[in-house]
Amino acid sequence: MSLFDQGTELVGRVRSPDGKLQTRELLDVCRSILPIVDKLGAGFMIVKHDVGGNIDRLATCAATKPDVYQADVFAMVRDDVAAGTHTGSSSVTKGLLWLKRAMEFIVALLERLHSDRAVSLSTAANEVYYQTLQRFHGWIVTGTFTVALKLVPSRDDFFSKVGVAPGDDGAMAAMHAYCTAFSGVLAEIQQFLADNGLDDPAKV
């Protein structure tokens, strides 16, 4: 089973029979993306660190009330808001928001590489960064990303590292299926945050 086949299988477990997004299963999908981030090069270590930190933050909170929080990732956010702690930079709400944004960047990058079989990884990463994350970044973070985007490997090297051979249409189809499935989950999280006034536009 390829990395992307495994990811699609994990996404299929995220929603419970009653349609709620389950925390442990959601975080498992996010963890499965860390090896992909790793293959983007040393410049993305800060992204990997941030993603891992937000995963740990949500997992730690979920463990405090497992019967409630494991069954519904949004229950943690609702309690965070009720307690008035959701605006803090280390809050569960901010953790979910930034985890979602990082996942959107990775999924959009993979989709860009799928839709254009000739585009370089560097070009695709630059385009997707400015479409997704850049508007939330101040000039210091943007500068850091600009450097990181120049250090990504070639397209062929990247796909080789994630186990996709040149011309492997089956693996590319699996990657697209994974992105499609996970995009639906991310869209649901985005809708929840937007509906509740939690999609903070402030730059970091």
Automatic annotation (TrEMBL):
**Cellular component terms per the entry's GO annotation:** cytosol; membrane
Q: Name one Pfam family in it.
A: GLTP
Q: Is Transport tagged as a keyword?
A: yes
Which superkingdom heads the taxonomic lineage of this protein's source? Eukaryota
Keyword list, A-Z: Transport
Which residues does UniProt assign to the signal peptide?
none
Q: Which residues form the Glycolipid transfer protein domain?
A: 22-163
This chain belongs to the protein called: Glycolipid transfer protein domain-containing protein
Question: What high-level taxonomic lineage is stated for the organism?
Answer: Eukaryota, Viridiplantae, Chlorophyta, core chlorophytes, Trebouxiophyceae
